[in-house]
Inverse folding.
């Protein structure tokens, strides 16, 4: 499969997460293959071990797994029955079908977390408008979420009235109802766990979402009380252990006046951890590889006092490279990461990261770092620094 004694990791999915994992695999000197839907996919452009196939086809998955020592994922959309079949074949699937089920079924995830005593938004399975109205009990808005298939804000509807809820139900998909949480801000924690149970957890970050898309990540979360930060990290490590996760677990949370509520889970590298490439001792991508290969985990500690990551969204034209000159000359410390994706308005096509320098407090505060990162991301998108 590769050099003698060197394992091959196979990642199902070839988006930007797989693309950045390929870089980490190259640095570690381990084999890396991706199962891509198309040779034009983000990771397929850079991974030598690219196989084109369908993640919904058990035959394609089996053929891909036969050339790998361990199988992992850059998305949650592989059918659970296929994963279980691969495990019966003896494939090392990490994370396995049992924990991944809780990222594929939001109702099961909510029920499992509630059973563990983890605080979550109030929820209920609903099948018709009457049940949604019963759940709301006159308190609107209500959040409806697709039980399966949603990501990046897709499959989530904030319904301000029964009429809006009825429109969602007309889609004919299975949904759950959740209370609309009046949160102070959104936080996220990345934890890693290896097959033999070693764990590591990154500093808590603040995420800024707009239109259902993560736009910015501030690390560490500014002004977060140490006790609450420790609680969030303990939650992430505890959930990873209870669910039997191997690899990375991203736990998205709401910070409210009453404490922390767990909102979403993802078992893979995550947008909330892109800052770790420059801002942590071990990037989330290297950490995920270490975990699925059962290598000792790397230090998740900050490599700088603070870091800010801003996503680059597509603008009106695709001539991004031509704008590098201004961005790099204006602020040479900005790190640009592009994903090789066709530019479409509003699509995530890359990210920029700015880190604070140790001992230079003027450049270590989040407001200054965020301003620099936003200017760079805006220029890459629009050709001007004052865009959104």
């Amino acid at each position: 499969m590769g050099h003698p004694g060197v394992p091959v990791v196979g990642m199902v999915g070839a988006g930007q997460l797989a693309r950045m994992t390929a870089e980490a695999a190259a640095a570690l000197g381990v084999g890396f293959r991706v199962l891509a839907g198309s040779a034009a996919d983000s990771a397929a452009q850079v991974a030598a071990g690219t196989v084109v196939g369908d993640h919904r086809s058990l035959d394609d998955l089996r053929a891909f797994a036969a050339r790998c020592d361990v199988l992992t994922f850059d998305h949650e959309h592989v059918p659970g029955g296929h994963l279980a079949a691969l495990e019966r074949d003896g494939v090392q699937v990490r994370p396995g079908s049992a924990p991944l089920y809780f990222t594929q079924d939001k109702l099961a995830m909510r029920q499992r977390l509630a059973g563990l005593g983890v605080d979550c938004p109030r929820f209920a399975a609903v099948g018709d408008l009457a049940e949604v109205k019963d759940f709301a009990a006159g308190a609107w808005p209500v959040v409806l979420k697709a039980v399966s298939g949603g990501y990046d804000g897709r499959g989530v509807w904030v319904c301000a009235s029964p009429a809006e809820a009825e429109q969602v139900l007309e889609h004919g998909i299975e949904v759950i109802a959740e209370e609309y949480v009046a949160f102070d801000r959104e936080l996220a924690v990345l934890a890693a766990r290896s097959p033999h149970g070693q764990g590591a957890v990154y500093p808590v970050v603040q995420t800024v979402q707009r239109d259902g898309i993560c736009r910015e990540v501030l690390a560490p979360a500014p002004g977060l009380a140490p006790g609450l930060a420790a609680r969030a990290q303990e939650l992430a490590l505890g959930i990873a252990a209870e669910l039997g996760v191997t690899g990375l677990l991203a736990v998205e949370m709401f910070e409210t006046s009453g404490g922390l509520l767990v909102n979403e889970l993802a078992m893979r590298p995550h947008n909330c951890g892109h800052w770790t490439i420059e801002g942590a001792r071990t990037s989330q991508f290297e950490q995920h590889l270490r975990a699925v290969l059962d290598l000792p985990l790397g230090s998740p500690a900050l490599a700088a006092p603070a870091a800010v990551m801003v996503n680059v969204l597509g603008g009106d034209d695709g001539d991004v490279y031509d704008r590098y000159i201004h961005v790099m000359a204006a602020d040479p410390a900005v790190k640009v990461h592009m994903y090789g994706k066709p530019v479409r308005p509003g699509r995530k096509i890359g990210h920029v990261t700015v880190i604070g320098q140790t001992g230079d407090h003027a450049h270590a505060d989040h407001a200054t770092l965020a301003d620099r990162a936003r200017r760079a991301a805006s220029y890459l998108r629009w050709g001007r620094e004052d865009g959104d």
Notes: The mean pLDDT is 95. Residues 147 and 173 are 8 Å apart (CA to CA).
